[in-house]
Amino acid sequence: TGGLSDELLKPIWHAFSALDVDKSGKVSKSQLKVLSYNLCTVMNIPHDPISLEEHFKDDDRGPVSNQGYMPYLKRFILEKARDNFDMQEFNKMCWTLSYKKNMSSRSLLISNEDAFKVWCIFNFLCEDAYPLVILAEEIEYLLRKLLEAMGSSWNQDRFAEYKLQLSLQRNNGGLSAWELINLVGMAHFSKGMNRQTVSMGITQVYQELILDVLKQGYVMKKGHKMKIWSERWFILRSNTLSYYLSEDLVDKRGDVVLDQNSSVESLPDREGKKCLFVVRCADRIFELCATDKKRKQEWIQALQTCLQQVRLGLLSPHREARLRRQELRQKHTVEEEELTERMRQLQATNENKQIELEVMRKKLEEAAAIAAMEEERRRQTQTDLQDRYMLDMAREKMEREQMEQQVAQKTSELDQYLQRVGELEDMYKRLQDALDQQRTAKEEEEAMRRRQARLLAEEAGKRVELEQLHLQQQRAMCQVQAEKQELVEERQAQERALQAATLQLQTLEEERQGALEQYQEVTKKLTLAANKTKKWKTRVAEHEGLVRLIQPGHKGPQIMTNWGPASFTDAELELRKKSWQEKKNQGVH
Q1: Scanning 166, 345, 504, 553, which has its CA 20 to 30 A from the CA of 205?
Q2: Averaged pLDDT for residues 117-136
């Protein structure tokens, strides 16, 4: 299985590293053949040297690397490995190949056998990454176990100081197998302990972690056939309860296989025996007797824990605890990486914020400079405005004086305009007289026409007389025609005079309109000047009487023309229109 292969690969890695003398990561083929043969022999696997030759046939003379040996190792050795060999003998073989080239020459307080046990414990507790190292947490776990087994107290402050030094000296914060052996062998954390005590502590931890010994000790056992009570050395592992003749483990007397159907329970005292308990299996029942109640309770509790692990299909408690610690470390590593990444992101964000703050600071400085410039410009603008205001006031005073002069000039022009309007009214009266004369001429012409008609009637009645008087009549007709021609010429002369008067009237009206517009413009300027200064209003008020004297007085309903109020009413205008129309019609007839 994968778990067994990983467990076997760690001792093999030590052996391969020991063969790599120059630390180049390569080993000669002859040494690999020897290593492969020894592995197959210890693990009860048929050795196949031909496969090794075929695997490295392209490199007959040169060294073979670890990367090249690993595929062969997995295919022809690890995948064929079964749980049918002595794991301790396998570890012994790999230890023999590796310890002589790696053990320190300094004197240690532990024996070679104890160093081998520490080496096995290292392989059990180290990480599954190569090169193999044991982390500070697992070192603390091992040292606590050793000191507990030796009956010594744990000094947390001393280990914390050592852990700090270790983290500063090494990036990975761990030790190799040989450094761990030196740490335990130099009694760095077990000063004052003799060799035997240290050896017993190492052995106990080795049995607990490597041999899966959950509990061991002398217990009285009742025989199955003879029913005799005998003292035996019992060893409880993850799924077996083995018993030996003595604690030297030489004469093994039997195994009790624990499965899901097994159970343990306490028994009452009987047959003069106390502290009894029984282990029930599928095929046998084992009655046991502890030396005292405390050990009885310890054995029952250990057996119940072991049976619970078997029912749940779990590994030994120490292996489960190691897996949990590894999972916690992996989780902690992931959390640290996430925290590092988060810190990096926060740092990047902080740097960006610092950059943004620096940019904002520069912008604020620029804004302050711009504000100062704007303030200076505003002050300059205010000064310019004050100067301009003074100039405007002087200019306004000058314009006001000019306006007063213009008003005086316009007043004089208005007087002249009113005089011309009076002249125009006189001319209009003369025109009306001419129109009356024209109307009188038309009436006379009409009377002449009626007289002519009457004469024609008389001529019809008096044709005879007319014929007689034809010559006289012809003379009269000639005279009438001459008179008529004179009347026509007189009427045309009057019409031409009327047209000339009309044109002159239109010219006067246009001049009056221009004068009125000038008057309105002057009035607007007077109003503006009145709003700016009270003095100007007073002067305008003084001139309002003069302006009003120019306007015609109220005569009832009046007609407003482009030149102002007319000099006649609507009724007079209608009469004049009718009279003029009648004269025009008579002239047509």
Answers
A1: 166
A2: 87
CA distances from 366 to 357, 361, 374 (A): 14, 8, 12
Burial profile 396-426: b = 16 or more Cβ within 10 angstroms, e = fewer = eeebbeebbebbeebbeebeebeeebeebee
Positive or negative: CA dihedral 515, 518, 522, 527: positive
List C-alpha distances in Å: 183 to 175, 189, 481.
9, 8, 168
How far apart CA 283 and CA 553 sit, in angstroms, is 152
Q: What is the pLDDT of residues 471-525, one digit of tens each?
A: 877 787 888 788 888 888 888 888 887 888 788 888 887 887 877 788 788 777 7
Write out the E strands in 225-374: 229-236, 240-244, 252-257, 263-267, 276-280, 285-289
Q: What angle do CA 565, 568, 570 make, to 5 degrees?
A: 95
What does the angle CA 308 – CA 123 – CA 334 come to, to the nearest 5 degrees? 80
Percentage with pLDDT > 90 across the chain: 9
Q: Which residues pair with 263 in a beta bridge?
A: 280
**Can you tell me the distance from the alpha carbon of 240 to that of 247, in angstroms, rounded to the nearest whole number?**
17
Which residues make Cβ contacts (< 8 Å) with residue 212, sequence separation at least 6? 237, 238, 316, 318, 319
Element (H, E) at 304: helix 293-312
Instruction: Give the integer Cα–Cα distance in Å for 93 and 79.
Output: 19
pLDDT value of residue 2: 53
Is-above-0.70 flag for pTM?
Answer: no
CA distance 302 to 217: 12
- Mark 435-446 as b/e (b = at least 16 C-beta within 10 Å): beebbebbeebe
Locus of tokens 């470390």: 329
Q: List the beta strands (DSSP E) in 56-151.
A: 64-65, 134-135
The answer to whether the CB of 13 falls within 8 A of the CB of 94 is no
**Cα 469-448-498 angle, rounded to 5 deg:** 145
Radius of gyration of the chain (CA): 71
DSSP 8-state symbol, 258:
-
Question: First vs last Cα of the chain: how many Å apart?
Answer: 146
Among 214, 231, 212, CA closest to 222:
231
How many helices (H) and strands (E) the chain has is answered by 16, 13
Query: Which residue type sits at 432?
Result: Q
SS3 44: coil
Position 157: which residue type?
A: D
